[in-house]
Amino acid sequence: MVIGMDRPPTPDLVADTLAWIEGRLDERLTLARLADRAGLSPYHFSRLFTARMGLAPMAHVRARRLVRAARRLAAEPGLRLVDLALESGFESQEAFTRAFRRHFGTSPGRFRRGLAPPDGDPPMPHPAERSRAVARLPGLVTRDAFTVAGPTRRFDPATAATIPDLWSHLIQALPFVDGQVPSWSTYGVVWSADRQEGSFDYMAGVGVRADGPLPAGFVRKTIPAATYAVFRITLDGTALPPQVKGAMATIWGELIPASGLAVADSPDFELYDGRFAPDRPGTVIDVHVPVVA
Cβ distance 68 to 25 under 8 Å? Predict the structure, then answer.
């Protein structure tokens, strides 16, 4: 594992990264630089940071620069917006204005004319929402390529809470006779994660044949052959989404870093077997994370 040269990370990589970013907002910060400093691949660092903070690393950097820009707007009446935009890392005044409006709900000009600067305290990691009901299974698992199909959408940290809607769509369509393989196992598949923004494609799917008809709105996707580390979530019978969210923070924030494994840039997936019952204590979900063998 290669550690970045700025200074070694503390055990809490995210908290340490937040403080480090705060003192370097004037510098050229990239996902690669942040990940290198943490000793992780950009893909792994982005998943870890997003699971812990609820937004992607570079989205956090952009938000902190906007907070600092708002302070300067209030404190420096003669500051030109175009200069502030460029000094805040934006390519143009127009891009800065759009980002400022999205973040604060008002334009820089209106902000300057009467609003107080926002609270500038840097956000800290979410309190321990991690789960202890998750553990890595021994060894690694190699799987041949297989094909799944189901409703698919692109999500980001702000919309991820609506993922259960895809599962409702899937369940309403099951079973379908012609294309589905003879199994009741289902898959929650993640791929095409945007490391900068934290967005990703997600499918609630079932195994299908490589061809044949599918229900309306279903998409077919082939998962390539890969080697996986498998993490088992054991449910307690309470609401499912908070348990999965906490378990993912534990997997990406603790168990994968502790394993020393390098995460491969390939789809990862949750496997729900045919006996899955979310309200039954002891039911399990096996999360498959592709790794470099």
Answer: yes
Rounded Cα distance, 185 and 191, in Å:
19
Topology of domain 134-291 in CATH is Multidrug-efflux Transporter 1 Regulator Bmrr; Chain A (3.20.80)
Q: How far apart are CA 7 and CA 59, in angstroms?
A: 23
**What's the average model confidence in pLDDT over 1-16?**
53
For residue 255, is pLDDT > 50?
yes
Distance CA 167, CA 173 (A): 10
Domain residue extents for the chain: 13-39+55-112, 134-291
Q: Could you tell me how many helices (H) and strands (E) the chain has, helices first?
A: 10, 10
Rounded to two decimals, the pTM is 0.77
Cα separation, 211 vs 178, whole angstroms: 10
**Cross-strand partners of 113:** none
